[in-house]
Each structure stands twice: as structure tokens, then as C-alpha cells.
Amino acid sequence: MTSDSSSPWWSVLYGQLAELDEGFVGAPDAYARRQLDLAERLLALPQGGEVLDLGCGAGRHAILLAERGYQVTGVDVDPALIERARARWSARHGAAAGPRFEVGDMRAPPAEGPFDAAIMMDVALGVFDDDADHLRTLGAVVDRLRDRGRLLIELYNPYYWAANARTVHYPPGALLPDGDLVRTYRFDALRGRVEDRVVVFDADGRRAMPTQSLRSWTPPEILNLVQAAGFSEATIHGTDGWQPPEDPLPLDPGRSVFMWVVATL
User: Fold this and answer.
1) Residue 217 burial (CB < 10 Å; 0-12/13-18/19+)?
2) Tens-digit pLDDT profile for residues 151-195
3) Residue 94 lies inside a defined structural domain of this protein
4) Contact by Cβ (8 Å): 75, 54
């Protein structure tokens, strides 16, 4: 993927990561299945229910949900990732009916619904610099859910990241077949954002990707935001370190890398 300098960082970064290795575009299938096992429980999805996947990327969660029998619409702003999602489905299922993938901005998604539930995985909600854009996104979900529909949002836990800045080195073969990858995480406490930067060392030399900067709300902040968007109630759950638990867990400030917010109309 190529992009001009006026493109938002996420458009440039995720396209570059997708060119490096498909594993960067969403979680690997085994991890994503564990995410969705928990998501199904938290969302109380009806059999064959309709699900909106906002910020779907290359469609990993949307495809796995469709394989579980749900009717899924995936929306992403990047046309290249949407094409990759469609190709991924075709490679697995040929011409069989599957998820509907659409190019669109999550602040005004083209899919109108109504949906039984919506998901925003892998910190998709946190990409914008202005919380007004996050509020607009949540409002768009409210407009597209059925009565008592639910939204699942996966976010970084700021309490964990404030104490766990780190640099991780992946040698050749760990993530990339022929290159080293270094990923550095830090927490910007003044802006409430988790930042991470990927640098690749391979035959082409040293390549630094745009810094990923994702909004990381405290629990009171995100609860206020979803309420302002029009949801009537919300609960917060935590992960077991990096892993989605089999059963819902309370948020552990020092251990849960992610927090899962379930908002109900």
C-alpha cells in the first residue's frame, strides 16, 4: 500500500504492516477464536444474529464470526484491507456467501443495519486524536443497533501500560521470515494514549513505521463516553494478561493488558 503524506497515520501504518506480513493485520486465528469465544458470551448473540465489525481490517474476526453462522458486515476505511478481507474469504470458501465487506469511515459507516451487536476489536476505537470523533463513532453504532443491542469495545488498559513500557525484539523467523523486528511501547500519560513503534531490519535496511498512537481511557472516562453516545448501561471486563479469559473477569489494573467494554442500548 502506498499513501501520501496527508493520510492519517493508521492508513499508512496498517498498510505497511500488511505488506510485511498478514499476521500483523489483526490477531492470528487461534488468538482471535479465543477473543470471539468470550465475545459471544458477553454479547449474548442470537443464533444467526447480525453483527457489525467496525475497523475490521483484513476481516479476521468477521470471517470467523461468519464461519460460526452469524451474518456479518465488516467496515474499514482502507480499500486495500477490504480487498484482502474479501480475498481471504474466497480463499477459504470460494464463491460461498459470507461477510459483507464495505469501505467506509467508522464515524459514518455505510452499513445501516439494524444489527443485533457490534464489535470494535484490537483497539479500533482509539485511533482518532479528538474524542469528538470517538463520540461520533459510538453515536453511529447507537443508530445502527436494534433495541437492547450491544457493542463490544476492546481497549488498552491504561493502568497496565502506565507501568509497563517495554521494547520487544523478534528475531528472524519469529514474525518475519528474513528480518528482525523491534517493537517499542510507551504510555503518554498527558494524552492518555498508548504509543508503539515498529522498526524492521532486513535486506532492505532499517525501516521505521509510523508510530501507532491509541487512546486509552480510564474506566470512568470510557463509561462516561458510551453514556454520552446514548448507551443505557455498560460493564467493564479484563483480560488475563494478554489473553482473553474463558470466563469474563473483572479488570485487574496491574495485570489486564486489555479491557473489554460491553455497552447496551
Assistant:
1) buried
2) 999 999 999 999 999 999 989 887 778 889 899 999 999 999 999
3) yes
4) yes
pTM reported for the whole predicted model: 0.89
Residue 3 lies in a domain: no
CATH number at residue 236: 3.40.50.150
